[in-house]
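Pilot study result, target chain (154 residues):
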Amino acid sequence: MGWFYGFKLHLAINHQGEIVSFCVTRGNVDDRKAVPHLMKNLKGIACADKGYISKNLTASLAEQGITLVTKVRKNMKKKILSAFEKFLLSKRGIIETIIDQLKNWYHLEHSRHRSPVNFLVNIVSALAAYAWRPNKPRVNGISKLSIENTIMSS
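Predicted structure:
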């Protein structure tokens, strides 16, 4: 009874907790393959987790005007980051909070869909409901000018 869809939702948010881009991929697709679609027409600093580390991806985003900032893996050399980039990287947990809210408050994680259309409607309605939420998790404590082009992704 019903169908199972193994999919992942990739999000890009700004410093105010607003979703600026999203992308849905199959569950077995590498996270880095979604980034070009996710970051299309965006500029600034993108803070991401270690799953997005790639020299090719970093170079292609740099051509687009996006600086990709990630923590390094244990077997990698340390990166030199500015104080601002370190601060933004420390605030990357905000996107995990948003994903948690989408799953728990807006019932995004749901495996009883009976059709592909119902599956997509559930995703879009959860994102729309979150967009209308007045008090979103946000990055506090920095000036508006220094963060106007900040993107966080997961």
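One observation from the pilot: The beta strands are 7-13, 19-26, 44-47, 66-69, 150-153. A full batch analysis is planned for the follow-on phase.
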